């Protein structure tokens, strides 16, 4: 259970119900972080606008490179919600999610190409505390992706660091998007979020 409970659909006011409908059309149901952020309407709105804008602006890097770096940041920070949701998004984007099981061996695994290895290593360095990015690493990334590609990669990894840290602090956990054929996200108090004892 999140440390701050979400607002269920039955308690949502008109704006929030409209927002929940939009999320349901987009994702199949309402993600739990939306329901929690709904307790601060201005932040919910700001977050939604920011997420959509960042997604629309991120067009320089190939999706596989961007998504694997974002996934790695979530994994390194231990945000099970982000890992689960990110896996679902990759699956729906037509990306190979089986290779995610080998991400800890990315340096040697044939599941990853050179560009993906660079992006994963950068996600690791950016997610370290303190940040461990080097001049040499950025130079190599610039040679591979160009300045705009590096900026996009940096922004997306930074954004995932924010999400993962925030969701972990609020104790938002994996909702089972990728178990079996699950791609629907329950709304708090509308459906059981987790199995008993979870």
Distance between the termini: 9 Å
Low-confidence stretches: 180-198
Listing every helix as H and every strand as E from the N terminus to the C terminus, the arrangement reads: HHHHHHH
Give me the CATH architecture of the largest domain, please: Up-down Bundle
**Overall shape:** elongated
Assign the CATH topology of the largest domain: AhpD-like
Number of domains: 2
Helix content: 55-70%
Average residue-wise pLDDT: 89
Percent of residues in β-strands: under 5%
Please report the number of helical segments: 7
Major sheet, described briefly? Answer: none
Number of strands: 0
CATH class of the largest domain: Mainly Alpha
Show the helix and strand layout.
Elements: H1 14-27, H2 32-37, H3 41-57, H4 63-77, H5 80-92, H6 114-127, H7 135-169
Organism: Actinophytocola gossypii
Protein name: Carboxymuconolactone decarboxylase family protein
InterPro entries: AhpD-like (IPR029032)
Task: Describe the structure concisely for a colleague.
Helix content is 58%, strand content 0%. It is an all-alpha fold and 198 residues long.
């Amino acid at each position: 259970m999140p440390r701050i409970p979400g607002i269920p659909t039955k308690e949502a006011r008109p704006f929030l119900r409209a927002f929940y409908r939009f999320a349901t059309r987009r994702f199949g149901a309402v993600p739990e972080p939306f329901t929690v952020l709904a307790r601060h309407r201005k932040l919910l709105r700001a977050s939604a606008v920011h997420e959509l804008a960042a997604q629309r602006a991120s067009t320089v890097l190939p999706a596989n490179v961007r998504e694997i770096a974002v996934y790695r940041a979530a994994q390194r920070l231990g945000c099970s919600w982000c890992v689960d949701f990110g896996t679902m998004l990759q699956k729906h984007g037509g990306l190979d999610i089986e290779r995610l099981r080998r991400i800890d061996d990315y340096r040697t695994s044939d599941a990853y190409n050179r560009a993906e290895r660079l992006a994963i290593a950068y996600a690791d360095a950016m997610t370290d505390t303190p940040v461990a990015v080097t001049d040499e690493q950025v130079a190599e990334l610039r040679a591979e992706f160009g300045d705009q590609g590096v900026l996009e990669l940096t922004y997306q990894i930074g954004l995932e660091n924010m999400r993962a840290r925030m969701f972990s602090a609020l104790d938002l956990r994996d909702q089972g998007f990728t178990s079996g054929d699950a791609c629907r996200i329950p709304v708090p108090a509308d459906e059981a979020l987790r199995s008993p004892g979870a």
